[in-house]
Each structure stands twice: as structure tokens, then as C-alpha cells.
Design brief:
The chain has 180 residues and is mainly β. It is built from two helices and seven strands, in the order H-E-E-E-H-E-E-E-E.
Length: 180
């Protein structure tokens, strides 16, 4: 299973050099109440956006390529000029294009579009800059169908080949527990 929080944290760490220049940098808040409006300083909020899954790579196991999109929600009081939206976008791309996060391919730009023009909230411009990466997600279930009391094992890999045991359990401890 892909760890989206690790990916978000790595992106925030890569953008950290923008903070001393006056940019507010944050992971998307857990609740709406934690999200302050309007923003006074230029703001970048990072959040997992979506995933698309490729065809099965292996028929013997559940191995798929997962295309992951991460959204950088950019907010500023102006479009142009120092730390306006366009400048903010250029800075984000400078730090993120080609960034390699362990277990993922290098980040690439996907889309940049207006999210909203928040006039009642002080004239804040908001744009979505979506970045893409890929990971291989592999899950293998090893079951001994001839012996229902054998150990079942689930392996997951998103590191292009390194496997971790994530679940291990007896298939059944009592014949009455078997679901047939």
C-alpha cells in the first residue's frame, strides 16, 4: 500500500526553503476548522489528490503501477510580481520537478489551473498545481489451499522489488471457522 503521508511530507520538506522568504507552507489540515482564511502571506498547502491504477503487471500476484497525483494548492493576494501566483508556481516547480522520493519515480508537473477567485475573502487567488509520480504496488497472498490450517502470508512492495510482510495469520484455527 502506498504511503501518501510520506509523499506529502517529502514534498513539504523540499519546499521548506520558501518559508524564510515569507511563504506559509503546510499539509492540508485534517479539518476545515483548522484551515485559516484568508491567507495573509502567500500559502502552499500540500495534499494527496488522486491515484490511477494500471493493468496488472503479473497474473500470479496483484502487481500494478499506481500513478499518484499530489496537489499543491497555491494562494496569494496577486497573480503577478514577487510571490504572486505565477512566481509561486515557478518556485514550486524549481524545487519539485525531478524530486525523487524513496519508492516513487521522479515528480513531474501534471496540471496548473485556477481553483477559485475568493473575492469575499479579501481577493485571494487560488490555483492548483498538480504533480505526478508513480510507484509499483505489489500484493501477494500465499495460501495453502490443500491445508486450511496453513499460514497465510501477505507481501506488499512499492519499492520496485523490496518486499515487506504486512500481514500473517493462520488461515483457520478450527474447521468450524472455515468459510466454504
Amino acid at each position: 500500500m502506498i504511503d501518501y503521508t510520506t509523499l506529502e511530507d517529502a514534498i513539504i520538506a523540499a519546499l521548506a526553503p520558501l518559508v524564510p522568504a515569507g511563504v506559509e507552507l503546510m499539509a492540508w489540515p485534517e479539518t476545515e476548522a483548522e484551515y485559516s482564511r484568508p491567507c495573509i502571506k502567500p500559502r502552499i498547502s500540500v495534499v494527496y489528490h488522486s491515484s490511477k491504477y494500471g493493468a496488472l503487471i503479473s497474473a500470479a500476484e496483484s502487481t500494478q503501477e499506481e500513478s499518484v497525483s499530489i496537489q499543491c494548492y497555491l494562494q496569494a493576494q496577486r497573480l503577478r510580481g514577487s510571490f504572486g501566483i505565477y512566481d509561486l508556481k515557478a518556485h514550486v516547480l524549481k524545487y519539485l520537478l525531478g524530486l525523487i522520493v524513496p519508492n516513487f519515480t521522479p515528480l513531474s508537473a501534471h496540471t496548473f489551473e485556477m481553483a477559485e477567485r475568493d473575492a469575499p475573502m479579501g481577493g485571494i487567488f487560488a490555483y492548483n498545481l498538480v504533480m505526478n509520480t508513480k510507484a509499483i504496488s505489489q500484493q501477494t497472498s500465499v495460501n495453502n489451499y490443500e491445508d486450511p490450517f496453513a499460514l497465510s502470508l501477505s507481501l506488499v512492495s512499492n519499492d520496485y522489488g523490496n518486499n515487506d510482510v504486512v500481514e500473517a495469520w493462520p488461515a483457520a484455527s478450527d474447521p468450524d471457522d472455515l468459510i466454504l
